[in-house]
Amino acid sequence: MGVATLVVRTDQLRTGYGAARPRGSVRPEPPSPVTKELIHAAMATTTETTAGTAAAVPGPVGTAQGRAVPAGAPAAAPEEAAALARAARLDALLGDPLDPANPHGLAELLAADTRGEPPTATEQLLTDARLGAEFVPAEFGGRLTRADLLAKVLRPVFRRDVALGFGYGITSLFGTAAVWAAGTERQRADTAGLLLRGGRASIVHHEVAHANAILRDEFTATPGRSGYTLSGRKDVIMNASRSAAWVVWARTAPERGPRSHSVLLLDPADLPAGTVTRLPRVPTPGMRGGLFSGLEFTGAPVPSSALVGRPGEGVALALRTFQVNRCLIPALAVAAADTVLHSAVRAVTPGRGGRTVRRWYKPLTGVFADLLACDSMATTALRALSLLPERSHVLAAAVKYVVPDLLREDLEALASVLGSHGYEHRSPQYGSLDKLVRDLPVAGLGHTGTAACQAVIVPQLRSLAERSWFSAEEPPPALFRAGAPLPVLDYRLLGIASGDDFLSATLAGAAERLAPHRADGGPATDLAVLAELAETFVNELRGLRARCLRIPETREALTDPAVVTLSDRYALVLAAASVLGVWESRSQDGRDPFLADPAWAVLALTRLGRRMGIPVPELPDGVLDRMLAELSARYRDGRSCDLDGLPLAR
Prior knowledge:
- The chain is of the alpha+beta class.
- It contains 21 helices and eight strands.
- It has helices at residues 3-10, 33-49, 53-56, 77-94, 106-115, 120-128, 147-160, 162-182, 185-196, 314-347, 361-387, 393-418, 432-443, 446-457, 461-467, 502-514, 526-548, 561-589, 593-596, 599-612, 623-637; strands at 201-204, 219-223, 227-238, 245-251, 261-266, 276-281, 292-303, 307-308.
- A hairpin with a 3-residue loop joins strand 2 (219-223) and strand 3 (227-238).
- The radius of gyration is 24 Å and the shape is globular.
């Protein structure tokens, strides 16, 4: 089996996830039972909760056009600089990843993965560095102010090992999000204290039909006079054996619907003996060092004070708070793929003075452009969570939908570049490919994660076509401007299905501003091609709008394969809009000549267009050469291949 084939097959072997279908597929494929069930659940939940959720949650209120940055507010540079400084310090503490003698380097991390053990020494280093404080909002004594800054701080960890990032504690953030959004003062204080002390919290998901192991089975909490009686069994929960808090989505109503589940915050030490059994560890093909195990409750009494938010609010809390997870995971996966890209460049440049073998120009520059596109989309969504929290729901789902699939395709391309090096599974120079291929499906919850994102997007398509596309206002410039001040992330403000799409307005606005540069019969300049590409995606959105306006207003129509396919194409249009928004911002501030150059945006949009099967212009001369020059320089200088281009430990 060749290395390129290995990427595809390992994604399917024993995971129960399956591979996602090709982007922009012309022939619609039937939606899976998971997709159908989640779409119907999302419809019911958003219908009931959209109107009242924001008003019911405590906390400040956003403006209609996004949260305004106060006039005269200090520049965000100090806050961003502080986050980047913490990231640099963490990177330095973790040390040179290629040094075989480094106890926190890739050699030891890969060895721990082979043994199926967490890297204990490195986890202790993260505890000593107080990484847990990054998961606690600043108002509760932690360091979390914005989701985009959190991603920057965590990238040094994920650049080395996705399983380490999940196993050490990012799942604690996912679990405690419900507490930050709707918990009592006591719940927030106790949870903050736990994470600040280096403790962990486990998230215990509810069940969806035909799910993978992580989303299979759930607990039932029967209401009583003084609380709940908890029963049931779930076999696969990350860190269940070593967490000091379990955040449980438990069924509290027998009927299916938007009020079927509630969230309970449990302290294992408070549960009476004999009412909870810790089940054995479950081995997994990906994240082999992660500690997945189960819990079984047998009539466990849970006090009413354990309830987070209101009874029956579990599904609504999941829809609101999971937006952060959906943006954060892809942003961190970009950092992991960055490591594999560096290893691929390394494989084809030794002894050539930094020059890359000519035949690998296209795959290497293509992956580089994809990483920049993925980072553009993820970063835009992360910043929107602060600036436009009530309007980021669909974008967050689109990010989680698009980025992992693009990265899976890129890993396959890099496997072909690595060749026989791809079999060096324990090599710090080349072993990251094999590990990320196994870890990425677990991180994204595989097909069930994709289906959950479809379930958010599909019910909104007709509404977006009717009320938003080509009529929404463009977002504030701060959304794309690096270093611009933003409000803090407030989980209480995250909304559901607002029916507004600010990125479609960015796409239309960028195309209009680029229109004067369109070719008039002369040589095709980079700007002329970028203008043509922008107009091509605007036309794609026009076509999508016409098709979405014809979607029947019935539940059955939303699980039609043709309608589900529209969500594929729409998500890629949002990716293109993110690229244009970031490029325009970077070309105006001029701080990075490479990002101000249209070349990367031209290549990124060309690749997105080809994935969708739409006609795109030929690349102008010199685009690939400039992309390769930048990639080679970043490899030579030891800098990341994302939008920040930061120096890496070496």
